[in-house]
Amino acid sequence: MTATARETVLRRVRDALTLSSHPPEVEIPRAYRTGRTLPDEERLALFVDRLLDYKGRVHRCTADDTAAVLAEVLHGHRARRVGVPAGLDPAWLAAFDGEVVTDSPDIPAPRLDALDGVVTASAVSCAETGTVFLDGAAADQGRRALTLVPDLHVCVVDLSSVEAGVPEALARLRPTSPLTLISGPSATSDIELERVEGVHGPRTLEVVIRTDV
């Protein structure tokens, strides 16, 4: 007996449902390139070049100068009320003479829009793509809303956390954490290809890179 079109469709649906409930074991190759390294100055130069290409702003300092540079950056934006994650090193804002607001889950996301900016640390960065990775489970980086709602994000990056390539950067992250990947300030293009900034996140990204020298 020839099966009708309806029977054929139903049989295929049943087969698909059975397959989705008991998927076959498939070995997925993970032979990604890893272990790429670059000397510090080359890695720094590449990272800065990519950040600038994405219209980020870059400042280089030593660890001892962190507070002074952050205060200067915030002053340049006339920021008077700045949000920080609960675990951020308080010494970083010791030279800032404005109000520092410590974020918490109890603060509704819309209220974060009243902040002039936010200062956070970072988990790891990729020089090849100019991308900064934030770990939402890390106390010095905070929840996603804190870095997406305010119009200014000042992010501190240690050169020791900058990897040459994407595989090397991903290997240092916790895959179970809520991760945010930042490549320059938030931007998109309208139908006429006009660049529009600040649509999905901060309009301005300031990256303070701390080096040993």
Automatic annotation (TrEMBL):
Transmembrane spans: none
Alphabetized InterPro entries for the sequence: FTHF_cligase-like_sf, LUD_dom, NagB/RpiA_transferase-like
LUD domain residues: 116-209
Pfam families, per the entry: LUD_dom
Protein name stated in the entry: LUD domain-containing protein
